[in-house]
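Predict the 3D structure for this chain.
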Amino acid sequence: MNLELNDAQVVVVGGTNGIGLSISNNFLLEGAIVHIISRNYNKDVVTDLENKFKNKVFFYQSDATNESALFIAYEQILKNSKNKIDILISNVGSGSGEKKVIPSKFDWDMSWDINFKSAFNSVKIFTEKIAESNGSITFISSIAGKEFIGAPISYSTAKNALISFAKSLSHILAPNVRVNTIAPGNIWVKGGVWEIKEKNNPLEVSRMLTEKVPLNRFGHPDEVSNLVLFISSKKASFITGSCYVIDGGQTTNY
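Done. Predicted structure below.
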C-alpha cells in the first residue's frame, strides 16, 4: 500500500532508539522528511541515517520535558522544513520506577515529566503548525496505561493520562488535526530491558510469554512503527480518538 508520505514533514520526539528509531527509519523509507528530537546524541545512529537518507533527515538534541529547550528545536525545525509540519509522533517514555504503593515525590515527578509532560510540551508547541497542514498526532503509550500489569504505578498513571489526553485532543482539535494513541505491550529492543531480563532469567521470561501472551513471543519495533505510519497517513483519514493495542493478546479488556 502506498501511504503517500513522500516529502511529508514528520517530527519524531524520541526517535533514536528502539520503537522511535524504527518509526524514524520507516518514515524515511516511505520518502518522508524526518526531524528527530532526542535528549541523547547517538553519533552512530545519526550518521547511519544521514548516510542512508541524504538531505531527508535532521537531528535536534533537546529534552522534550523542558518546554524552552523544545521550543528552540521547534524553531530550528521550521527553518529546515520550510515552515511546515505535517505529522508529530510523541514517543518519549520510560517504564522504570519504584514499585511502591505510593512512590516517592522524586519518582512520581520524574515519571510524569518523561511519560506525560514531554507529550504535553510537544502538543503545545507543534499543534498550530500541524493544524495548518490538516495533519496528525500520534502518542506512544503502553498497555500499562490500559490495565494493571504490575508496572510501576507512576508509569501506569502517566501512560493512562496520555490516552485520556489524546482522546480529549481528538475532539478539541478536530477537524483540522487527527489524534491517536498506540499502546504497545512487551517489545524486544536490542540493549533494552527484555534483552537484559532474558540473559539474567531466561526461564522466567519464557514462562511469562507462555502464560501471559497468547502469541507466545515479544513484539518487535517494526510491528509498532508499521501501524504508526498507517495511522499518521491520509489512508487513515477517518481515524481519530482511537487507542490501538499491540501486545500479542496480553491485555484482557475489550
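The chain has a mean pLDDT of 94.
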